[in-house]
Design brief:
Pectate Lyase C-like, 3 domains, 14-stranded mixed β-sheet, 15 helices, disordered N terminus, pectinesterase activity, chitin degradation, hydrolase, EC 3.1.1.11
């Protein structure tokens, strides 16, 4: 069963949907015709700005300042959505639609919430017979193919059904594409692409991948797109020799290439970073961790030595056992600061970088329908460190329940005080007893869990006396917990993902300065994430000003111990407060709750009430991120996170 391609762009996918009653997979085919209108280069640059900001309104809602739009909601429960299948949603669109359209796929639509369980999959390979009996070939084997520009997907997995990761590398017919993107100006956030040979066909156009996971064996990121991969994990399942990339730039005039920034290369087998599919192939890895699976030579010329003179392959400040430049082929480059600069940000794909012939400022022709496939799935954030009976940090992450762990607390800092971390009952920092947590932290991060250091707390001694004081605290945090260096790092050599502001006293001054100084360190390499835990009365008395900076990625609002805005017997107070909180300049807002009745004085919501009443009322918000729980000890007693995680 295959669609044909019309002369206009066409999007098709094969979708596997879990039937809860019969535990069977129902396969569907989705086809959508595309219409085209002209857009200017200025409008495209606005798209780049939107992508760079990572505002959830881009990925979760149809609201847009430039184009008219509307949202279609898909949920297997007819009472909660407009349609029960993506097919029905697309069928509802008129053939000549001039509106931007968002398809919003609710959590639990197939097998649960999150990219791990919401999966688009199909089983074609390059050898699968097509409509006329001839093999499909690599291009037409894609599980999901997009030819339209302005396509965005968030928290969805695209998978080759039952792909054989152990198949011999390069064997004819084993090529099977999980996703092909041929449209311009596309973005992917929190998505997974699963296959073996030729997993992700980045065919053509400008594309942005953020926090994605890409798995394969041979040439599993290939094509001739101009694409930036930021904070992604590239995971090899090669049984013997494989390659991450096969970039197809065929001319020195092509402004294409792949750039990987702050990524991870992990997995099995022996891996080349890239093979020169095109004679002018261009690939750069920067600030990227590489497992000890990289072949020392690093790069392969596709059996054509003449390509050694024309390809552009580079590394910049990479780390890990596989990142050593010693042994790399002589025709690859260890980039200087100036050489690397054009590859490190969105300027690489918006045309302002100096990495080759720039993208012309001509008027672009683009599709006037934007389809966003996005899953309203959140994560659970947990506080750990305030009870010695709550289990180890490694055990906490091994539960699979949490997306974030906040280490509580750095309770003393600022105003000339010697900073002191207090992980009650777990370790004694005064005798370097907490450095052993380093391996636990790395283990958690390897699972994709962000580990934050929470500063403050309800019983701490902290105070920022001035802007200079804020700068000094930021410097201390950078050198001792983040990407800097110090001879006395309390948690060893592990690099935390960011800083959590749990400010409940001291002063309301200079927290915005601290946020700015910490955020500035992101320019040095690995991003420094910022989170905060304000009280639900709006605005927060202590860090309300800091939250207006727009620098915070995650805000877990404490909807407990605050009767005026927490849940009681009805939703009115909580919903009103929630609407205020989602108006702030932050990327994601979390509903903060006690994990058990004893964890707080008030505000506990039974799991069944949370999943049936509260979450359905707030998950449609543009900035919904999930649920924060206080804390791990009480969660162990109640099993709260396990009870709610499939609905978060």
């Amino acid at each position: 069963m295959h669609t044909h391609f019309f002369h206009l762009a066409i999007l098709w996918l094969a979708l596997g949907i879990m039937n809860a009653d019969h535990n069977a997979v129902v396969w569907g085919k989705v086809v959508m015709n595309k219409t085209r209108v002209e857009y200017s280069e200025e409008q495209f640059l606005k798209w780049v700005d939107f992508v760079g900001s990572l505002n959830h309104s881009l990925f979760k809602s149809a609201n847009n300042k430039v184009f008219p739009s509307y949202t279609l909601t898909v949920d297997k429960n007819p009472a909660l959505g407009d349609f029960i299948s993506i097919q029905e949603a697309l069928d509802s669109l008129p053939p000549l639609n001039l509106l931007r359209v968002v398809i919003n796929v609710h959590a639990g639509f197939t097998q649960g919430g999150g990219a791990d369980s919401t999966i688009v999959e199909w089983g074609d390979t390059a050898q699968t017979p097509g409509p006329k009996g001839r093999p499909l070939g690599t291009f037409a084997s894609a599980t999901f193919a997009v030819d339209a520009p302005y396509f965005i997907a968030k928290n969805i997995t695209f998978k080759v059904y039952q792909y054989d990761a152990s198949a011999p590398s390069g064997r004819d017919g084993t090529q099977a594409v999980a996703f092909r993107i041929s449209g311009d100006t596309a973005a992917f956030v929190g998505c997974k692409f699963l296959g073996a040979q030729d997993t992700l066909y980045d065919h053509s156009g400008r594309h942005y991948y953020k926090d994605c996971y890409i798995e394969g064996s041979v040439d599993f990121i290939f094509g001739n797109g101009l694409s930036l991969f930021e904070e992604c994990e590239v995971h090899a399942v090669a049984s013997v020799t494989g390659a991450v990339t096969a970039q197809g730039r065929s001319s020195m005039l092509d402004d294409t290439g792949f750039s990987f920034v702050n990524c991870k290369v992990t997995g099995s087998g022996a891996l080349y970073l890239g093979r020169a599919w095109g004679p002018f192939s261009r690939v750069v890895f920067a600030y990227t961790y590489m497992d000890n699976i990289i072949i020392p030579k690093g790069w392969h010329d596709w059996g054509d030595p003449s390509r050694q003179m024309t390809v552009f392959y580079g590394q910049y400040k990479c780390r890990g056992a596989g990142a050593s430049f010693a042994g790399r082929v002589s025709w690859s480059r260890e980039l200087t600061d100036e050489e690397a600069k054009p590859f490190l940000s969105l300027s690489f794909i918006d045309g302002s970088g100096n990495h080759g012939s720039s993208i012309s400022a001509k008027t672009l022709t683009h599709l006037h329908i934007l389809v966003i496939l996005t899953l309203q799935a959140g994560k659970i954030s947990i506080y750990w460190g305030q009870n010695g009976n709550e289990g180890t940090l490694a055990d906490t992450c091994a539960t699979g329940n949490y997306g974030f762990v906040n280490l509580a607390f750095l309770a003393t800092f600022g105003n000339g005080q010697t900073p002191m971390i207090n992980l009650a009952g777990h370790c004694d920092p005064t005798v370097n007893g907490c450095t052993t947590l380093s391996s636990d932290i790395k283990s958690c991060q390897a699972k994709g869990i962000k580990i934050m250091l929470s500063i403050g707390g309800a019983a701490g001694s902290y105070y920022l006396a001035s802007t200079q004081d804020a700068r000094q605290v930021a410097t201390y945090l950078w050198n001792n917990f983040l990407g800097g260096t110090s001879s006395s790092r309390p948690l060893g050599d592990a690099v935390l993902d960011g800083i959590d502001f749990d400010i409940e006293g001291g002063t309301d001054q200079h927290w915005d300065d601290l946020a700015r100084y910490l955020s500035a360190y992101s320019k040095k390499g690995k991003k420094v994430y910022l989170s905060a835990a304000p009280q639900c009365p709006f605005p927060d008395a202590w860090i309300g000003g800091a939250l207006q900076t727009g620098l915070f990625d995650y805000v877990w609002v404490q909807f407990y111990n605050n009767p005026p805005c927490q849940y009681s017997s009805g939703m009115t107070d909580l919903e009103q407060a929630w609407k205020q909180w989602v108006s702030i300049k932050a990327t994601e807002i979390f509903l903060g709750l006690p994990a058990a009745p004893a964890a707080a004085g008030s505000g506990f919501i039974p799991a069944d009430v949370l999943t049936s009443k509260v979450l359905p009322a707030i998950k449609g918000s543009n900035k919904y991120g999930g649920v924060m729980l206080w804390d791990k000890y009480y969660d162990d007693q109640s099993g709260y996170s396990a009870a709610i995680k499939n609905n978060v």
